[in-house]
Amino acid sequence: METGAPIAERVATNLRxxxxxxxxxxAKLSEQLAKQGRPMGISALSKVELGQRxxxxxxxxxxADALGTSVSDLLGDPAARGHELAYDxxxxxxxxxxxxxxxxxxxxxxEAEKWSAIVDFAAEGPAELEAVCLSLREQFKDEAARLxxxxxxxxxxxx
Length: 159
Hints:
Layout: H1 7-21, H2 26-35, H3 42-49, H4 57-67, H5 71-75, H6 78-81, H7 83-122, H8 126-158
Helix pairs in contact: 1-7, 7-8
């Protein structure tokens, strides 16, 4: 979008980027607008974001409230404020956090399984318990190395 784009285009672009940056779905935005007494269906919202449907000043104020932003943010020139860059950075951060969360969960599962195995074999006696502990330690090293490689590959793939 060029600097000095018509206001309707600015609002459409800013609305889409601000909504997506806040991880608000069209359905959720529709619900929030209805609560404010400005009902607008998902299809209508999509048309607003695509610049295919106009809105009035009351809608503009309701959008700003629903998104936790100001009317001036919706009216401003997106190129001047760098919305596209900010959106890309937020999306990249979410992806990285998601990968970190997946690795953390896998680690927690592996730890739970290891403790479960230790408890199961503890009743067998000290010699068996020692063998299980040594085996689990080696298994954990291999698993940790595999998870680290997976994370590196995922991050490299994203860049």
